[in-house]
Predict the 3D structure of the following.
Amino acid sequence: MRRIRSALPALVLAATVALVTTGATGASAHADPVNQPTPTPERPPGQAFYRALIFQTSTQQGDYAGTDLNEQGQLIAGQEAHNGENFIGDAQGRMIWLNREATGCEERLWPDVGRALTIDARSQVVGLGSCTTAYPRAGTWAISRWSSPTAAPVVTQGEPVMSGSITVVAANTAGAVLTRFEHAMLVPSARTTERGGVRLVDGQGRFWTVIGNDLAEDGSVVGRLVVEDLPERSVPFVTRGDVALPLKVPAGIQSPSWEAAADAISPNGNWIVGQVGLQPIRWDARRVPQVLPSGFVPVDVNDVGAVLGRLGEGWGVWSPWAGLRTVTIPGLPAGVRVKAMAKINRSGQIAATVTGADRVNRAALLGVGR
């Protein structure tokens, strides 16, 4: 077993400004979100101040991305070059490098753990790797699993690399992995979404119409359900069992649409966010839709219903108790910018990727400024 590297220092960029909410008192920011009035979409955004902890990987290691984090504030960072150098980072700046010595491939195939992508509440990690041969594209795709930050990984072989591409979308603590596979033939009927190895279907039993985007702890999957071809139009869906069922859309919004999908579901399954056309929407536990402010593009939603998303050229956080706020990170070094934000947990921490003045991407954990 390969020894786990010792923790490396991380650059902590702390903002001394507390979280600011336009139009809300200090007490209201901590009030029960269920009993707070929902702001109107026209309300101008306030500011949510964050501090950034940037994990200082070297230029020689190449680009990294912060792709997921759990409720404990552990962030998973995968190497974009797909060389298997992955680590878990936390709010104290510690970096635990994941073991690369995997098992699980058939004889005469070599395991490659690939890139770590998800981390759950038990610190279990899932990634996309392969079982390789001496010949290019002659191996198979493989799902890589680490049962703990220090465990040796195990890979599970999948489809041949030459047959098409696979995407690891999400995973939960029960061990279910949500994957999408697109056959090299590049025809609609060649794409499938599977949860734990079980193919998802629509109400007519068709599998190629179901495109999964996220997975909750209870196994619920959300995504895009294609209902019309040429041109392709879709509706957002949530599963019941293995069947994708359309979500209700607010009155006055055209559906199906050329761009309609449920993009994320909270870990507890209570909240869903997505878009229909250009209109952002959040669904509650009863799957009742609520229109979000225009121009906000949802990316993720946490267990209390706070939504992370794109906002113009930057990023924003929307919540029912504070409305829409622009994510502001004072103190970023000159030349450093936020490239992407991927996940928000219950505490409001965000998994992000930043680009430095050296044009190298690094994983970053954003915490609410105090």
Notes: The domain at 10-368 is CATH 2.130.10.10 (Methylamine Dehydrogenase; Chain H). DSSP finds no helices and 29 strands in the chain. Confidence is low (pLDDT under 50) at residues 1-41.
